[in-house]
Amino acid sequence: MAATKKIAAGVAAVAACAAALAGCASNDHAHAREKGAPGPKKAAPAAPGSVNRLIGDGSTAYTGSQPHLPTPHRLRPGQKPPQFVVFSWDGAGEDSQKLFSHYRKVAKANNATMTYFLSGVYMLPKSKAKLYHAPQHAAGQSDIGFNGIEGIRNTAEQVRGAWLDGNEIGTHFNGHFCGKYGGVGQWSVAEWKSEIRQAKSFVKSWKTNAGLKNMPPLPFDYDKELIGARTPCLEGRKNFMRAARQLGFRYDTSGVDDQVWPKKKHGLWDLSMQLVPFKGHSYEQLTMDYNFMINQSGKSTQGDPGMREYWGDQMRDSLLAGFNRAYKGNRAPLIIGNHFESWNGGTYIRALDETIHTVCNKPEVRCVSFRQLADWLDAQDPRTLKKLTTLGVGQAPKQGWASFLDGKKAPAPKGAAGAPATRS
Fold this sequence. Notes:
Layout: H1 10-14, E1 37-38, E2 53-55, E3 60-62, E4 73-74, E5 83-90, H2 99-109, E6 115-118, H3 149-164, E7 168-171, H4 189-204, H5 206-210, H6 222-225, E8 228-229, H7 237-246, E9 251-252, E10 256-257, E11 264-265, E12 268-270, E13 273-277, E14 284-286, H8 289-297, H9 308-327, E15 334-339, H10 347-359, E16 365-368, H11 370-379, H12 382-388, H13 401-404
Parallel strand pairs: 5-6, 5-15, 5-16, 6-7, 8-9, 9-12, 10-13
Antiparallel strand pairs: 1-4, 2-3, 11-12, 13-14
Organism: Streptomyces beihaiensis
Protein name: Lipoprotein
Keywords: Signal
């Protein structure tokens, strides 16, 4: 991206995504806080800045445990699970729209934390572009360009502040290559490992590459902070997950799923985005701003001005319909993905602001990052999670939550060993 303009070519890169129901999906997917029993113990967080061990060139530093992270608690027998909602951002960077800083303010105002998937090339100046060697591409190529010095300065300030606020810094990798001819869907496990290493390296050396050595470091060890991602255009997930597991990642959110409780896949939590009722249509819609745009104004990022208010309302109401279906039903976490873009006059930004304000302030709702959701899932009794996965979309337990999660062993399915005899 240019120093103070829109992150370079983001729309052009995103436009490579499919324009169907799943939009940015690959062809494989076209279609008040409660406490329970304590989970695994965590070290008490150190005060920010009480420890400051510089790493490498000083672009990052170990400053102690991340502040503002809640301790995950195991559900008590019979306790109703909270309603988790995750708002996440692909390619997070601070440009002239100032949407990164905007959503930090929105999160604070609504008792929320979020996940920001930082693109590594947003920490790499154009003058150093050839340091990036994308798999199956020449050195210095990127479908979303690179950044200017001022853009790197502003993005680093926001990343630093976001982490200290309790938000998560994930990765959206680097060059955002989609489709044929070297797109991420064609990359091998080894190539994904190379892309991940480079994404880390640009974050770990931004001060040297941008000549900003007097700025404070990012207050985390990125090798340890980075535990999850979303792939460009939701492509290449299979080999990415294999690489990610080997590199110590804990979750992936590159899939498309129904509103059901997550399970592990290839050793990672499968925290896929979801399909929710699409207001005014008979089909469901993926929980991502880009996909709403594609289904409303096609490939035009600035469609009919007379329709923009309606389109924003339609997105907001669709997300709220999905939220209410889970909140009153199976309590499956709601996963939402977005971009720092003012498509269709910023109507999706308004829709998300209104959605966040509505859902994050309801009783028993926790608007959290993917890291916090993964921590909570890891703290639960595996038998409890298995029971939760038996609930269908919008399905609340018929016998009530107290009975459903009473801690007793579930009866074996009919016909299975140990099940009561039945008559045909």
